[in-house]
Every structure is written in structure tokens, then in C-alpha cells.
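Lecture 7 notes: from sequence to structure.

We start with a single chain of 110 residues. Read the sequence below before looking at the structure.
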Amino acid sequence: MQLTGNSTSTVGFWARYRLAAAQARARLVAAAAEAWGVPAEEVEISSGVVSHRSGKRAGFGDLAVRVARLPARDGVQPKDTSYARSDDHPKPSNSPGRTRAHRTRRNTVS
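Now the structure, written as C-alpha cells:
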């Protein structure tokens, strides 16, 4: 069953979403390390690109089949939020940071 709580779903399940992202990130790193024959510690993910200092790069979709074959790892922890970019955090729709135009936008066809 899937539920949403209006604008509170992301905020309410933030810890679960972070854990799911951490598990996905670990599997992407493991898949790339396996494909490239490099240690997982040397694989990085930034802006949707998996890379290695040797110059090897792959998008998430490029690794999807290999990732699907890997088991989920136990003990994976989300990244420390002190290193997160400001756009990585959920912002409720009633946040003061949102503009009035954003809150009142209507669907129009021109």
C-alpha cells in the first residue's frame, strides 16, 4: 500500500528515503567497481555520474542491469548531512523560501 500525507510525506519519511538512497548509492558503487576492476573506495558519485579517477564514467542507467543483480548491503548508512548541498533537503510547500508565484501558479495553455 502506498500512502501520501499531502505535503508531509517527504518530511515524514525523510530518514527512510535517505537510507534507501544510501543503499542505492552503495550498490551503484559496487557495480561500477566490479565492472571496472577497481576498489569500491575509489569510485565516486556526483551529479548523477559514477566515476573513477582513471577517467571511467557511467550514468546510473548504464549500471542498472549490474546493480539489479547485486544484493542490498547491510550496515549502509546515509551520508553525513553536514556535507549535503542545500538543495538536498526537502522543503515543504509552505516554506518561506518558496515564492508566491510558485504557490499560486495555475495550469495555463497558451
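The longest strand covers residues 43-46. Keep this in mind for problem set 3.
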